[in-house]
Amino acid sequence: MEQVLASLTSHRSVLGYMLVSRGQPVTIIRHSGVVFEGEQGRRYAHAVARIVESVQTGLEEDEVRFMRIRTRRHELMISPDERYLLAVLHDPAV
């Protein structure tokens, strides 16, 4: 896992990542990047958990494996697992 996370942060476009628990309460297990620190990081963690939960609830017969959410400035890539969520934020313009 260390090698994968180090590989993620080595890309110029990656602004940060966070590994979040799927249980209640939603907990940031590990993060990198200023964008995921403090209160802003907690808001991102809760938003990512709610987004994944909503999508999986809507897709009753299928399991979400990977999600990409693009905004004007950033792209958020989410990889859900049974126990964890990995979210990577990057700047697609770089």
Q: In short, what is this structure?
A:
With 94 residues, this protein is α+β, with helices and mostly antiparallel strands. Helices cover 32% and strands 32% of the residues.
Describe the protein's topology.
Elements: H1 2-10, E1 14-21, E2 28-32, H2 38-58, E3 67-70, E4 75-80, E5 84-90
Tell me about this structure.
The structure is a single chain. This protein has helices at residues 2-10, 38-58; strands spanning 14-21, 28-32, 67-70, 75-80, 84-90. With 94 residues, it is of the alpha+beta class. The protein has one domain (2-90): Beta-Lactamase, CATH 3.30.450. A five-stranded antiparallel beta sheet has the order 2-1-5-4-3, with helices on both faces. The two termini are 25 Å apart. The mean pLDDT is 90. This is Roadblock/LAMTOR2 domain-containing protein. InterPro entries: Roadblock/LAMTOR2_dom. Residues 1-90 form the Roadblock/LAMTOR2 domain.
CATH class: Alpha Beta
- Helix-strand pattern: HEEHEEE
Average of per-residue pLDDT values: 90
CATH superfamily: Dynein light chain 2a, cytoplasmic
Gross morphology is globular
The spatial strand order of the largest sheet comes to: 2-1-5-4-3
- Percent range for helical residues? 25-40%
Rg over C-alpha atoms, rounded to the nearest angstrom: 13 Å
Structural class: alpha+beta
**Main sheet properties:** 5 strands, antiparallel
In terms of per-residue confidence, which ranges show pLDDT below 50 for 5 or more consecutive residues? Answer: none
Number of domains: 1
Cα separation of the termini: 25 Å
Second-tier CATH architecture = 2-Layer Sandwich
What count of helical segments does DSSP give? 2
Instruction: Report the count of strand segments.
Output: 5
Could you tell me the strand content as a percent range?
A: 25-35%
CATH level 3 topology? Beta-Lactamase
